[in-house]
Amino acid sequence: MPRPPRRPDPHPAQLSLPVPQKPRARPTPEQLAKAYIARRAKPSVVPGHVKLTLTLELERVLAERLSAMAIRDDKNVEAVVIELLAKASR
Question: What is the pTM of this model?
Answer without folding.
Answer: 0.61
